[in-house]
Amino acid sequence: MKYVNTVLGPLETNKMGVTLMHEHLLGSLGGIAQSYPELLGDDFKERIIAGLMAAKHGGIDTIVDCTTMDLGRDIRILAEMSQRTGVNIIATTGWILTIPHVMGTFTANQFARIFTRDIQKGIEGTDIKAGILKSQAASDVVTPIGATLLRGVARAHLATGIPIMLHSYSPGQVGRQQIAILKEEGVDLRRVKVDHSLDTTDLEYLTWILDQGCYLGLDRLPPVYLIPKTGVSMIGRIKTIKSLIDAGYTKRLLLSHDAVLVSTFFDTLSNADKEKIAKDNPYGFLYINKVVMPGLRELGVSDEILKSLLTDNPRRFFEGNDD
Q1: What is the pLDDT of residues 191-214, one digit of tens each?
Q2: Which residue in 225, 234, 222, 230 sits closest to 205, CA to CA?
Q3: Which of 40-54, 111-125, 257-271, 280-294 is predicted with the least confidence, judged by mean pLDDT?
Q4: Pairing state between β 9-12 and 3-6
Q5: What is the pLDDT averaged over residues 75-103?
């Protein structure tokens, strides 16, 4: 029997059910929820619960929360939200945003030690363990600090067996550089998913990633408003998924929204921007069910394949099993 770490303890992978592989319950900065909760708006916990309950009632069983410490992760809140809603939540360790200058003095082994602690002992002084590692490259170049961080993530993976997600800038094909570093570190690329892959329609690049052994994180469904535009429409994203299925890569495609339930950032937006976001995605964590799946079905994708994208594939990824 294989297990994945959730915020409420180990979960058998065959009980993950319908799984969203890249979401955010809470987005801000590290420490905001503890020190300045009013910046998250009124009743922010109840708003998170409402979003999770809507997802649960729509058939979602498990959510991978990709919020690292610097993005505002609060592990106690994640555990409370899971306990109150019954939705399985998998927490993330690693780093994502612009890396502070002071961190440029840290070594890959120092990063590996703190991330390994999050996985083996617990996060933020708790016994709640991370279930996935995360590293980032937000442009078309992996910076020197970013490379050190990625090597730390790779070494934590090798020490723990926990899989890796890459925040990757697909229009600049930075995944090629990220994958090269992981290869140097000896990572089995079958334990890696490259996220934000639908920000490009370049099938040569996407199939190259898949041919290395990686999974593709097909998220930003719909495209995230206010994130720099990539020119890839929602229809273009659905067609790209269909093309990858037709090319025989169904088993290594992982769908998600990259949606945020509560964020200090969104609470500062103008009413017009808020209305635009609500119009683009009125369904929250159910947009894939309501829009993407019907769109793929219209293009001829079978219900069996559609189900496997949200159930079998996430399970297979966490198990490290290509079968």
Answers
A1: 999 999 999 999 999 999 999 999
A2: 230
A3: 257-271
A4: antiparallel
A5: 90
Q: For 155-179, give the DSSP string.
A: HHHHHH---EEEEE-GGGTTHHHHH
The answer to whether residue 228 scores a pLDDT higher than 70 is no
Among 117, 17, 26, 16, residue whose Cα is nearest residue 75: 26
CB 310 within 8 A of CB 251: no
Contacts for 76 with CB less than 8 Å, ≥ 6 apart: 124, 126, 128
Q: From 124, 130, 126, 128, select the one nearest 160 (Cα to Cα).
A: 130
d(CA 315, CA 118) in angstroms, rounded, equals 22
88 sits in the region (left: phi over 0; alpha: psi -120 to 50; else beta) called: beta
How far is the C-alpha of 192 from the C-alpha of 297, rounded, in Å? 28
Phi and psi, residue 217, nearest 5°: -85, 105
Residue whose tokens read 């809140």: 77
Does 222 sit behind a cis peptide bond, omega within 30 degrees of 0 on the bond before it? yes
Q: What predicted TM-score, i.e. pTM, was given to this entire model?
A: 0.96
Q: 196: closest CA among 164, 167, 229?
A: 167
**pLDDT at position 267:** 67
Which candidate, 115, 105, 58, 74, places its Cα nearest to that of 287?
58
Residue 147 structure tokens: 């490379």
Residue type at 31 in one-letter notation: G
Q: Are 83 and 8 in contact (CB under 8 A)?
A: yes
Residue 73 has pLDDT above 90, yes or no: yes
